[in-house]
Specification:
The complex is a heterodimer of chains A (about 325) and B (about 280). The longest helix of chain A has about 45 residues. Helix content of chain A is about 75%, strand content about 0%. Chain A contains eleven helices and two strands. The mean pLDDT of chain A is about 90. Chain A is flat, with a radius of gyration of 26 Å. In chain B, the strands form two sheets. A six-stranded mixed beta sheet of chain B has the order 6-7-8-3-9-10. Chain B has about 280 residues and is of the alpha/beta class. Helices cover about 30% and strands about 25% of the residues of chain B. Classes of the chains: A mainly alpha (about 325), B alpha/beta (about 280). Chains A and B meet through helix 7 and helix 8 of A and helix 2, helix 3 and helix 6 of B.
């Protein structure tokens, strides 16, 4: 006789109806939340697209290179703003990336005692918690006066370079770009540090065991392993810089047209939107929607690329541990 | 208290050929305030294979990592006593640990190739150590030494991670050979490998043992018996406060350790009547 009888019907009691209902409600609640956020993104994109249709029909692709933005005459071209967006973001990366990489390397190594390191990590990440408008005010009243001697120096010594060819007035492309650079430090630092920490400790140990110094281990093994993800972090920072509005609107000077000099007031897409939407009328709204659509497309693209880069590297690093 | 443990292999025969490559003098290792290994004194003979055997927690890996100062990288680890290499205590303050590690290579328990090409895995060490010679030649030579060349010669540009576990471990051995060390430490190099890969690594070890001083930590007594010339047996001990630490019980020629050990606990361990 088999002692392990499977005859007992008590073994698999059906779950109470109440429990099953409760689980189903929960599952559906989470599903709806997920689908709703995806739907929101689509809806916003779609709505902006629809509203910009008149402007797209009227200006077509020439919108991209036309430099006149004249609501009175009804002529719209967004090249100065697109150019401004690209240039401020580029300045932001030039300023922000070296700092971010330096900080992330420093904080992923054991240069400091653990508690102090943790405190610094939190402080850097709290930089991201400063509201954009506060950065704007700080920029206007603290940074611009502080930055003025630097701008004067650039103008006085390098005005033969077209990008420094106008006397600084305070607000302008360079000012906005540098503050943007500070604003993207936390996000790049946080992601880059995460990737660096994901580098398996065995790789570091192996580098040391080959007679590498700390710097050789960092630059020869750790950074090459992490660099793809760190560049992803940069692209994520770029996405942030492209779309950042308030501080830039306060610091860029909001001038029309294109000036090569970075010391001169300029404009970019977020600043244009922030400044004009409140008083815009029919066709102007459509033109602004068109600009917004362009911005949305650029930032979405940047974020998707960044996400893919970071994921691929983190996945490869954690997979190599197995 | 036990009688002092022999620090030199029994020298009744053949001892004239032995030169000492490394010597520990009263080495104790602490992790924080916890004693991990107590008072080990032994002399590692040059151009022979020495095996460290013993149960888990007996401190054999910890001691192994004293020979190239890898314990420096563990926060809170502290080494007392001296490790003498070429007449110099490698723990003296004027010694550069990177220099020690270049001359005393380490192969890890788990294969850990860099996420770089096979070629660059080998070339990393020579590059950071300022190797002046022909790098291509060195890569080929060390891959041949590690009996990996024929399997990888057509894919040197491929990632080291694309190799199988056994190949990765041979790559790691080749990488260590490429820094042209005098001593090679191996921390259970076959622990994560299948039997066939293990066999290949063991053959490789016997080959290398003629030209290099090798210290191998192993859990596998048969492996120690197969490959090593000398064996040190470590065991765990419990101190007055109930804390466990490791110490060396006995060090001798491998055949002595396995056939006529001087200590009862060694005999119990090697005959499998342990614990």
């Amino acid at each position: 006789m088999n002692t392990l009888s499977s005859g007992g019907s008590l073994l698999f009691r059906p779950r109470p109806v109440f429990q099953r209902r409760r689980d189903q409600v929960f599952i559906w609640a989470t599903r709806i939340a997920v689908f709703f956020s995806a739907f929101l993104l689509l809806w916003i994109a779609l709505e902006i697209g629809i509203q910009s249709l008149p402007a797209i029909g009227r200006f077509g692709l020439s919108f991209f290179w036309n430099t006149t933005w004249d609501p009175v005459e009804g002529i719209y071209g967004a090249w100065p703003q697109i150019y401004g967006t690209l240039v401020t973001s580029l300045i932001a990366l030039i300023v922000g990336v070296p700092f971010s990489f330096g900080i992330s390397i420093f904080l992923s190594e054991d240069f400091l005692p653990k508690s102090l390191r943790l405190a610094l990590i939190i402080v850097v990440e709290l930089l991201a918690a400063i509201p954009s408008v506060v950065f704007g005010i700080w920029g206007l009243f603290v940074f611009i006066p502080f930055f003025r001697p630097v701008q004067m120096f650039l103008y006085e010594n390098f005005n033969w370079l077209p990008i420094f060819s106008t006397p600084p007035v305070g607000p302008g492309m360079l000012t906005a770009g540098v503050v943007l650079g500070i604003m993207i430090i936390p996000i790049i630092t946080a992601i880059a540090r995460e990737v660096l920490v994901a580098v398996p400790p065995e790789l570091r140990a192996a580098a040391y065991a080959m007679g590498a110094t700390r710097w050789e281990a960092i630059f020869g093994v750790v950074l090459p392993a992490a660099i793809g993800g760190m560049l992803g972090a940069v692209v994520l920072g770029l996405g942030r810089a492209l779309g950042e509005t308030m501080a830039v609107a306060m610091l860029i000077g909001n001038a029309r047209g294109i000036r090569v000099s970075l010391l001169a007031p300029a404009s970019n897409i977020p600043a244009l939107l922030a400044n004009e939407f409140a008083e815009a009328s029919d066709e102007q709204i459509s033109a602004l929607m068109y600009v917004a659509l362009i911005l949305l497309a650029i930032t979405l693209l940047a974020n998707i690329i960044a996400e893919l880069m970071v994921r691929r590297v983190k996945f490869a690093l954690t997979a190599s541990r197995e | 208290m036990r009688p002092p443990f022999p620090g030199t292999p029994d020298s009744s025969e053949k001892s004239a050929n032995l030169t000492v490559e490394l010597e520990t003098q009263g080495v104790s290792v602490y992790y924080g305030s916890h004693l991990a290994v107590k008072q080990v004194s032994l002399k590692i003979p040059k151009n022979h294979i020495t095996a460290f055997i013993g149960p888990s927690g007996c401190g054999k890996s910890t001691l192994l990592r004293c020979f190239n100062r890898m314990n420096d990288l563990i926060p809170g680890a502290r080494v007392e006593g001296s490790v003498i290499f070429h007449g110099k205590n490698i723990y003296d303050p004027d010694v550069d640990p990177a220099e020690v590690r270049r001359r005393v290579g380490l192969v890890f328990q788990k294969p850990n190739p860099f996420p770089k090409s096979i070629y660059d895995n080998i070339a990393f060490g020579p590059r950071v150590n300022g190797y002046q010679g022909d790098l291509d030649e060195l890569v080929e030579r060390t891959l041949r030494q590690a009996v990996l060349w024929d399997e990888v010669k057509d894919k040197l540009k491929m990632s080291g991670l694309s190799l199988s576990g056994g190949q990765q471990q041979r790559l790691c051995i080749a990488r260590t050979l490429a820094i042209q060390p005098e001593v090679i430490l191996m921390d259970e190099p076959c622990a994560s490998l299948d039997p066939i890969s293990t066999l290949r690594i063991e053959e490789l070890l016997k080959e290398l043992g003629r030209r290099y001083t090798i210290i191998i930590v192993t859990h596998n007594m048969q492996q120690a018996a197969r490959v090593s010339d000398f064996t040190a047996f470590f065991n765990t001990e419990i101190d007055d406060e109930g804390l466990r630490y490791g110490r060396m019980v006995e060090f001798n020629r491998t055949e002595k350790i396995f056939n006529s050990p001087a200590h009862r606990e060694t005999e119990e361990y090697v005959s499998g009547r342990f614990g």
